[in-house]
Specification:
There is one protein chain. By secondary structure, the chain is an alpha/beta fold. It has 3 domains: 12-52; 55-192, no CATH class; 196-299, no CATH class. The protein is built from 10 helices and 12 strands. The protein has helices at 16-25, 28-35, 39-47, 83-88, 95-113, 127-139, 155-165, 205-210, 225-236, 265-268; strands spanning 54-60, 65-70, 76-80, 115-123, 144-151, 171-179, 194-197, 215-221, 245-250, 272-274, 280-287, 290-297. It has a 12-stranded mixed β-sheet. The longest helix has 19 residues, at 95-113. It is elongated. Residues 85-98 have low confidence and may be disordered. It holds the Pfam family F-box. It comes from Caenorhabditis remanei. Residues 8-54 form the F-box domain. Keywords: Signal.
Length: 299
């Protein structure tokens, strides 16, 4: 005797609060797939967005995909974006335009479904692909977990770099790999929480004194002992009010250079100093060609 056919489950007939709990219990992938079943279901998921997971959205432009992670990285879902497929059906449209539209559509859908914080690696020489999506996200005041930037020096790249840097206040961590055009003077009208610059020979003392980041790491810097002395004196006088950590790696930081706060690097290593108002202290560690400053408030 055959078993009776099970009756369909009418999800949308559940009470609103129960339905919200159901949506909250779904994985990222389950919620994504369910949102494409019908317009009614997608609207219900959109309405439950504020009760949904907070996710990190990694925009992988070169790989033509978007990866969505839970904050603890235990749950993930990948959204492929196929510009070649769409180009075959839109032969009169440039491929980068189709790729950009695909990314924009996917991003807009994710923003409706989740509380998103974005992450991306930007190659500025592909600015035609990046600019529309990045501009849209900044216009919406969307937060970024991380932005990594690789800059090769063209005029278009300079324009996009300055557009992005003017919105750094929305970014938790910025990593800049290179600025090869030494005639280019990047404009920082806002700063991220944390910044790492891998080839920071262009990042002058003037830039550093204006920087409001909490954590600053400069590799391959041209700053030297004299600059470090200015930095520490500025901090003692109340500058760098947000600073928690500063690391400068430079061939110009040496034991044979000028004194820093009246000490050479060996004397400075392990030294604890404090601000003039006595509210903060900093511990200094020195290494061959580098110095680290860790700041803590007095209890």
């Amino acid at each position: 005797m055959s078993s009776p056919m099970s009756s369909p489950f009418h999800l949308l007939r559940l009470p609103r609060l129960v339905l919200c709990e159901v949506f909250k219990s779904l994985s990222i992938g389950e919620k994504m797939k369910l949102s494409f079943c019908s317009k009614k279901i997608s609207i219900q998921i959109y309405n439950a967005r504020l009760y949904s997971q907070k996710v990190i959205v990694d925009l992988d432009w070169p790989g033509h995909k978007i990866e969505v992670y839970s904050e603890n990285y235990r749950d993930s879902f990948e959204i492929p974006v196929y510009p070649n497929f769409w180009k075959r059906h839109n032969s009169n449209t440039q491929q980068f335009s189709i790729a950009c539209c695909a990314f924009l559509s996917a991003i807009e859908h994710l923003l409706k479904m989740f509380q998103c914080k974005f992450s991306t690696h930007i190659r500025l020489n592909n600015s035609d692909l990046y600019r529309p999506a990045i501009s849209m996200l900044f216009d919406l005041q969307v937060e970024f977990k991380r932005i990594s930037i690789r800059h090769n020096g063209s005029e278009n790249e300079n324009l996009l770099f300055n557009q992005i840097s003017s919105n750094f206040r929305l970014v938790e961590y910025v990593s800049i790999y290179s600025v090869y055009d030494h005639s280019f003077r990047p404009v920082f009208t806002s700063w991220p929480q944390n910044i790492t610059i891998w080839s920071s020979d262009w990042f002058t003392l003037e830039y550093l004194l204006a920087c409001t980041c909490s954590r600053i790491t400069l590799w391959n810097s041209l700053l030297g002992n004299k600059d470090t002395d200015v930095i520490l004196k500025n901090w003692k006088a109340g500058g760098f009010s947000n600073l928690e950590y500063l690391c400068i790696e430079s061939q110009n930081i040496t034991n044979s250079g000028e004194l820093i706060l009246g000490m050479n690097l060996r004397e400075l290593d392990g030294k604890a100093i404090q601000t003039d108002d006595g509210l903060k202290k900093a511990t200094i560690k020195t290494y061959p060609e580098s110095i680290e400053i860790s700041v803590t408030p007095f209890e």
